[in-house]
Automatic annotation (TrEMBL):
Keywords: Signal, TPR repeat. Residues 1-19 form the signal peptide. TPR repeats lie at residues 441-474. This is Tetratricopeptide repeat protein. PANTHER family: TPR DOMAIN-CONTAINING PROTEIN, WW DOMAIN-CONTAINING PROTEIN.
Length: 491
């Protein structure tokens, strides 16, 4: 498998970047064809809305569909698109109430809404939302996860009914990805890719095909298959910040740090430009800055990573949102853990309550930094705070990590290693992250560090190698592996 992947990587890396005439693009968001019965003068806004949907720029999609509806109040597919913008399959988010407000504008019942649709295809697409939002007998009063599965099954039927329809195929592929409720499942992701390739092969400028295929392949095993899409997507949709960022999903999975950095600089700048147009505050503690900072750290560009975190830290001193505080906590964690500059934990601080988002990573990082600087009492206090945060597998792993290190400090080495190995097993059973590690100090890497301190260099080497299979070219694991090999050579 490793030989196959390496050969495939060489072949794909040699492919030329897809060249697209940007001036010829409509709205710089890609190229699609979506037949509909709406008024001609509303088409530009409608097509723009669908493209924004494919690029996961949901707020802009809703705005475009609203403009189309204002031009043509009877535009059924504009209602469909706006209602669809309130469902985010990959993120497992859905605002049913907002979606129903849009659909109820079209009609108060399923039957009345169906009567407004002009063609059978439009009726069918509209019915897919009735299932998605729980308005049919089989989807009523069931969980969102069950509705997702029912919606996917219905989209499969539409795909069979309209086999050459790129939009139906793309949304069917996305519905498959949205059925992975338990986390990354290779079989689910490969099923989605198998459907999406048809669209990609026939229209390599389709934003949804490129985007959803990247999601299908953004893990270390399959990432080489996603390189053609990663190289193309930023040029397919240069006006979509998310499109610029998505290319880095493949680059990160392959340890291509320059690509991660470049992609997220562009994503951040495109997002900032759009936010200024809308008179919104630029995001400095968010998804793109998190990935950018992590890329800098892995590339050894600590000064640049520090600048990104400092900007975020200044924002946190104001009135941050829950999302901003979460991103600050994880960015702070990566900066401290990946540079091993433990004293900076006293500099980058914020008020966190145990029940707030980001509290797990905040208190974990503080506890680890206190252990590394010898302040065991403060570490125990941080552990106490960590244990008050909401229970999750990820939290329990990090609790075990800190407890094992404290046990080592107390001289209970055997019990500590057993507990740390328990954390390793628990983390290895989790689906692979499709981004920077959300467990700040990966368990295999921590085990490698502990084994190095104990002089168990062969075991340390195994641990670092296992971590590098999950997070290719992660800097701290690479350093650990080199140190382990150096010590083994001296024996």
């Amino acid at each position: 498998m490793k030989f196959y992947s390496a050969c495939l990587l060489i072949i794909i890396a040699s492919l030329p970047l897809l060249t697209i005439d940007v001036a010829a693009q409509d709205k710089l968001l890609g190229k699609i064809d979506f037949p509909n019965s709406g008024a001609e003068e509303a088409q530009d806004n409608f097509i723009e809305g669908v493209k924004f949907l494919h690029n996961f720029e949901y707020a802009d999609a809703a705005r475009a569909f609203k403009r189309a509806r204002q031009i043509d109040p009877d535009f059924v597919m504009a209602h469909y698109g706006e209602a669809k913008s309130h469902n985010h399959p990959i993120w497992f988010q859905q605002d049913r109430q907002a979606a129903m407000e849009v659909l109820n504008n079209l009609g108060e019942t399923v039957e009345s809404r169906q009567s407004r649709a002009v063609t059978q295809r439009e009726k069918d697409l509209l019915m897919s939302l009735e299932i998605l939002y729980g308005n049919t007998p089989e989807s009523e009063d069931v969980s969102k996860e069950e509705r997702d599965d029912l919606y996917m099954a219905y989209m499969a039927e539409l795909h069979e009914k309209y086999p050459g329809d790129h939009e139906i195929t793309a949304f069917y592929g996305l519905s498959i990805l949205g059925s992975a409720h338990e986390g990354r499942d290779f079989s689910i992701y490969m099923r989605a890719a198998a459907e999406l390739f048809d669209v990609w092969n026939e229209n390599p400028e389709h934003p949804g095909a490129a985007h959803y295929l990247i999601h299908s392949f953004d893990d270390p095993v399959h990432a080489p298959l996603g390189l053609p899409m990663a190289k193309a997507y930023s040029k397919i949709a240069p006006a979509a910040a998310h499109a610029q960022h998505m290319t880095s999903h493949i680059f990160l999975a392959l340890g291509m740090w320059d690509g991660v950095i470049d992609a997220n600089i562009v994503a951040r700048d495109v997002q900032t430009t759009r936010q200024k147009e809308l008179n919104e505050e630029p995001t400095v503690c968010g998804h793109y800055t998190w990935w950018l900072q992590y890329g800098y750290l892995q590339a050894g560009e600590v000064e640049n990573a520090t600048k990104v975190l400092k900007t975020c830290t200044e924002r946190i001193k104001a009135e941050p949102s829950s999302s901003e505080k979460w991103h600050f906590a994880i960015m702070r964690g990566h900066q401290i853990v990946d540079t091993e500059n433990w004293k900076r934990a006293l500099e980058w601080t914020s008020d966190f309550e145990a029940g707030t988002r980001g509290a797990v990573n905040y208190f974990f990082t503080t506890a680890l930094a206190n252990i590394k600087t010898g302040n065991i009492q403060a570490a125990q206090e941080s552990l106490d705070q960590l244990m008050k945060t909401p229970v999750s597998v990820e939290r329990d792993i990090q609790v075990d990590q800190i407890q094992s290190l404290l046990m080592i400090e107390e001289g209970n080495t055997r019990e500590a290693v057993e507990l740390l190995n328990q954390a390793v097993v628990s983390e290895s059973e989790l689906p692979l992250d499709f981004g920077p590690p959300v467990i700040i100090k990966p368990s295999y890497e921590l085990l490698g560090d502990v084994m190095m301190e104990m002089g168990n260099y062969e075991e340390a080497l195994d641990a670092y190698q296992n971590q590098l299979e999950r997070t290719p070219d992660r800097m701290r694991s690479l350093v650990g592996k080199e140190q382990a090999l150096a010590m083994i050579s001296k024996q």
